Amino acid sequence: MNLPTSQNLPFDEEKLPPARRRQNRRRLLPPSSDAKAQIIQELAHRLTPSFDFFLFTFIAALVLATAILVDQSALYVLAALLVPFLSPAVGLSLAAIVGSIRFFLRSLGAFLTGSLLVFSIGCVSGWISKFFPSKTYEFAVQHAHFSWADLILLSVGIILTSYLLIKSNQSRPLVTNAALAYELYLPIGVAGFGLTSNIPGLWPDGLIVFGVHLAWCALLGTLTLAVLGLRPKNIFGYTLGTTLIIVAVIAVVIVSGIGAAVSSEKALPSVQTDIILQAENTNTVTPTSTEKPFNLFSAPTITPQPVLPTASPTNTLIPTNTPTITPPPQATPLYAKIKPNEQGGAVIRKEPNFSSPIITTLSNDYMVVVIDEYVQSDNVIWVKIRTTMENPIEGWIVRSLLITATPKPGW
User: Could you give the CA distance from residue 370 to residue 141 in angstroms, rounded to a whole number?
Assistant: First the structure.
C-alpha cells in the first residue's frame, strides 16, 4: 500500500550509507534544524540565572574579600570554587548564535549585576584595609595585572564549558566554571578593593583586566559553539561576533603591553641620550696642569714667581709649586630595569623588608636609578632606587628583580 504524497516518510538511519551513519553518531548536534532549535531552546532555559545565582555570588564575594584582606592564595581558590555556574557569561555567546538581542541584554544584565555585587563587597574590604596600614597585598596585585597564563586558563575554561553544555543536556560543568570565576570575578573584586584602599596598581588595572577577560570569554564561547555546529542565524549574530573580535583583539594588544613596548622603543634613544649627557656633565672636570711635553731639543723654561713688596723687612719664602686641588669626578649613575617576571612588574616599598608599606608598583622594563645603599633583610638583598618620572620616588626593591643597564663591578 502506497502512502499519500502529502505525508513525510519516516527517517530510517539504517538505510543510510555506513560512512554517513558513523558521521551522524559522531555529531554532538542532530542534523535536523528542528532538533537543533529544540536544543537551543533548552540551552537558553538552562543559561537563565535564578535567585541562587546571586545568593552564591554574594557568599563567594565575602570569601574573596576575606582572601584579599588576609592575602592567602588558598582563599582565592575557595572563592572561585564557591562561585555559582556563570550561566550569563555563556549566555552572551549563545545570544550571538541565536541572534536574540533581548536574550543578549538579559544575560549581560545578569552577569554585570553579579559582577557589581563582587565589586561592591571588594570596596568594603578596601575600606577595612585602612585599619591595617602596614599590611601587604601581594596576591591582589597579581590578579590586577594581565598575564598570558590567565588568558590561557580562561580560554580553556570557556571552551570546555561550551563543549560540555552541548554534550550533556542536564549537567553543569562546575569544574571548568571555577576557571571562569577565577579569571572574571577575582579581577573585578580586586579593582573594588583598590578603589577604596588607594593602593596603587589595583584600580583601574583590575577593571581593565576584567573587561578584557569578559570580551575574550564571549568571543571564544561564540567561536566554540560555531565549531560545534551552531551558526549565527541573523545579521545580529554576525555583527556581534565581529564586534567581539575587534574589541578582544584591541584590548589584548593594549593590556598585554605591546603598545607600551613600541612606545618604549621610541623613547629609548632619548633615555640613552640623557644617560650620555649626564655622564658627560659629570666627567667635564679635568685636572689643570702647566707641564709641557718633554722635548730633547728645548730646555724647560722656568718662570720666576714675582715677590710682593712688603712694608717692613720680613723673611720672604721662596714660592714652590703648589698642586692644584681638583674635585674628583662624580661616578656615573647606575641605571637598571625592572626584570620581567610572572607577576608582571615589581613592588617598591618604603623600607627594606616585606612588611613595609608599598609605595608604588613599576611595570617590566621600567628604568630606575640605583642609589648606592644595600641592605640584607628577610634573607634577600634590598637596594634603594629612584624612579625616572617627573616627580621621582625613592624606595626599596629586591635586587634580584633588577637588570643593570650600565655595568657596575660586583653587581
Answer: 24
In this prediction the pTM is: 0.57
Closest C-alpha to 139, from 102, 190, 203, 85? 190
Residue 234 lies in a domain: yes
Which of 194, 203, 201, 206 minimizes the C-alpha distance to 126? Answer: 194
Q: What is the grid cell recorded at 129?
A: 584595609
Number of other CB atoms surrounding residue 204 within 10 Å: 13
- List the grid coordinates of 219: 568571543
Domain boundary at 193, 223, 256, which?
256
Instruction: Mark whether 238 and 350 lie in a shared domain.
Output: no
pLDDT (tens, 9 = 90+) of the chain, 411 residues, equals: 444 444 444 444 555 566 555 554 555 455 556 666 777 788 888 888 889 999 999 999 999 999 999 999 999 999 999 999 999 998 888 887 777 788 888 999 999 999 999 999 999 999 999 888 878 888 898 899 888 999 999 999 999 998 888 887 666 788 899 999 999 999 999 999 999 998 888 999 999 999 999 989 988 988 888 888 776 665 555 565 556 556 655 655 555 444 333 333 333 344 444 444 444 444 444 444 444 444 434 444 555 555 555 555 555 555 555 555 555 555 567 888 888 666 667 888 888 888 888 888 888 888 888 887 778 887 788 899 888 877 788 898 888 888 876 556 556
47 inside domain: yes
Q: What is the CA radius of gyration of the chain?
A: 35
Same-domain check for residues 62 and 155: yes
Find out whether 57 and 83 touch, Cβ atoms under 8 Å.
Answer: yes
For residue 187, the enclosing domain spans: 29-256
Whether residue 288 lies inside any domain: the answer is no
For residue 94, give the C-alpha cell.
549563545
Same domain, 339 and 231: no
What are the CA-CA distances from residue 165 to residues 81, 90, 152, 177 (Å)? 19, 10, 20, 11
CB 375 within 8 A of CB 381: yes
Domain boundary among 256, 283, 305: 256
